[in-house]
Structure formats: C-alpha cells, structure tokens
Amino acid sequence: MSIRYDLPWRAAQTPHAPALETSAGTWTFADLFDRARRGAAHVRATAPRDDAPVALLLDGDAEFAAWFHAIVLAGRTVLPLNLRLTTRELVQQLVDARVGLLLGKAGDSRLADLAAQVPGLRSEIAPKLDVLSMPRGAMPGEGGDPDTGATLAALFTSGTSGRAKGACLTWANFLASAEAAADRLGAVVAQRWLACMPLFHVGGLSILMRSVRFGGPVRLLPRFDAAEVSDVLDGGDIAAVSLVPTMLSRLLAHREGRAAPPGLRVLLLGGAAASPELLTRALAAGYPVCPTYGLTESCSQVATAAPPPVGATCASPMLPLRGIELRIDLDGRDAPPGTPGEIVVRGPTVMQGYLHDPQATARSLRAGWLYTGDIGCLDAEGGLRVLDRRDDLIVSGGENVYPAEIEAVLLEHPSVDDAGVGGVPDADLGARVVAWVVAAPGKAPDVEALQRHCRSRLAGFKQPREIRYVEALPRNAAGKLQRSRLREPSTETRS
What we know:
alpha/beta, 6-stranded antiparallel beta sheet, 13 helices, 27 strands, 9-stranded mixed beta sheet, 28% helix
C-alpha cells in the first residue's frame, strides 16, 4: 500500500507559499523541493548501500530541513543525530544503526574520527544544496509514492535510562500522527508554527512533516532563547509553538507578567510533566497551554489536551488522540481510575520496533501494545495524568515515591529555578529521597525554607531527606531532565 509524499504535491499546488522562515530569509515550498531534489540526487550517488540509513549531524536550520526531505525523497531512512553527543556516543549509534552515509556540518572535527571508527561509514560535510546540480528525470516521490510500511526515520530514544535505542517510524506513523494532531488542535496545524526545539527530535520532525502536509510555514530558531522566542511571538504571526516546561517557565520569567501574544492559539507543552503552578501562571497570562504526552516510539503525541477556552483557569484533560488506544497496566490487568500503573499504547502511530534490536522490540511491543515504561493513571473520564518514568521510581522504606511529584512541589517555591529528584542508596531505607535544586536568579539558597515548604505539601516518606544546591541540572537537548546523571559530580555544589 502506497502513501502520498506531500512535498512534491505541495510544491506543485502552492509553489510560492512560504515553507521555512529563518533570520536569513524565507524558502517557499518550490525552493524547498528544489533543494530536496538536488540533495536526493547527491544521496543516491554517494550513499554506499541502498538499504542503509543516512545520518544527519547538522544544526536545526533550513539546511537540516532540506536534507531531511532530500533523504526521504531519495528513498532512504533518515537518522537524525544529536549534535551534543560525544564521539563515543555517536559511534555507538552509528554502529547500531549500520549507517552508510553521514552528512555533517563544516568545521565538525568529529567527522574524520567517526569515519575511522565506524566500519563501512562514508562521512562528509553536507554540501550546500543550492550549488548541487539538478538531477535529471523523476526522483522517488515524484513519479511514485512510497510504501506505508517503509521506515521514514529511525530516531534514537533520549537515553535518559540505559542504552539509547533506535525507534523505526514509518510513513504511516508520521501520516497518522499528523492527522491525529490536526483532529485535536484544529486549523492551527496549517498556520505558522514556531520551532525552537531540536529538529532531530521526533517533535521537530513532526512539525516539518505537518508543514508539507497542511501547507503551514515553519519559523525556525536554531535553539531556545527566552528573549528571542518572546520577540518572535510578539511579532503576532505565530499561531503555535512547542515547548517543554523548563522553556515555558523561562519564557514567563523573561516576559515578567506580560500577557500572551494575541495571535498565539496553541502552546503545545510536552517532554515532561508540568507543575500545576506553572500551568496556572501560564493560563492566567492568557497562554493557550495544551499539555501533551508522547514519546519517540509513538511518533510524538499520544494524549493531548484540546486548546483551552479564553479565560480558562485550568488546562483541558489530556485525552488520547483519534485512533489511539491507551490503558494503564497494573500487573497484567487494567488499573482502576486513579490507580497508578504503566502507560500502554496501541494505534497507527506506534513504531515498527527498534532498529536491529529484536530483543528490545519484544520487551516493548507485546500483542500490538507499546509498553512505554512511563507511570500514569486515568481519571473517571479517561483523562491521563503522567506521574513518572518507571525506571525513575524510588522505593524508600517500602513506599513508592515518584520524583516528578516532588519536583513539581519544589518548583512551586519562588526561590527555585529548577529541580531534580532522585534516589540515593540507603542502608536503612533502601533509597533515600534527595533533591538537587537550582536557585532562582537573585535568590539565596535556603535549605530550611524548602524543607518547610515540602513538609506542608508532601507526606513524610516523600519529603527530600537531603537538598543539594547546584549550578545546573543535567538535561538533554530536548530539555528532558536526565535523572540518572543527578548523582554525577559534574555540577558545582553551592550549599
């Protein structure tokens, strides 16, 4: 069964409509398709093997987007890589994925090392697409549509726990994800979207795929900067933006109580559970916050709140998107409403499996259901509340402690800018609860005040036994807290 690749069609139907916008200028859909065709010809001429993924190690700019479409147009699987990874981490992913061609940025000294350490890898600086020769004849995607079951992209999970694994996402996955997002978010999917999170992440690629499907332009920022994002939003033409809670917190702090830009219709908030206090602040300022839960293995969104009505004081419930089934598994049975268990998902957005890893695939995919490893519960109406990662669960004195719950309480305190909670081995308790805290700008560390704050809001077994002030918390490029690294002595202890 085939599926329409939207970029050639979009370039034919609306060639002069804006597709990608950066500080350097605007590319129309015709411009984007022109560059993608040139890049596709280059990939087909240089990739050592037809069946091997092509990896991208590039900044999240227009060239990245064009090379993404180029690899897709060439009929190859795209493997986007995180620029912040070490050479050792990149080698692991390139070897595991059996990559044939790696396209990197000029000046990246790692390219030669990677080519030397990865068998069969061809590594080169990605050529500028506007200077490549135009291919002759039709490219795949122009004369014939791809198969729905073909792998469009392989994306390595964030690796917040254990070894990163490459999730294989098909054309059908991306199409189903785009259509489900449109069903939940409405016409905003065809309007201007601000992309300030990494494009190598599934959320970034989903924005690119929705753009060519629905014709909405994407304003690209290479990284999140609160001042720059604020200025772009104030321009009035951004209808939607995707953020993680840390980004939203910093945006609100930068704007110092100013109301939300009137043109903003959707603020998709994912990557981690947001504290009630953060949601309240954002909604009070008029931000149309739509909390969402998703993961790489489900091609981004699983459950998303609908845009809140004007004047709403609380976010809408996170409900499964159209076509997606969600249940809470508790020891092999469905958990009653309000009872925590593992979030389990089934539907057309769920991945094929992990790249070249049948054992990991068998552990995560069972009878068509994706076992996410995340802990959550459903309310009586089917709304999802995400509690934590199963691997992050702390068992202290026989009690289950969810770090995200404690982090949310800490972040309610005005002196806290960021917080992470983990378990430290303890001879008596098994594990004791420890909090790592970043003080808000201009606020002095105050352990006693935070302990009083926690005592008034948390049961005794949940309260941090120790609070450690640090300069910064370990987060990956997508903004997710890496709890497994909290105990590393990589940040300077302040108090």
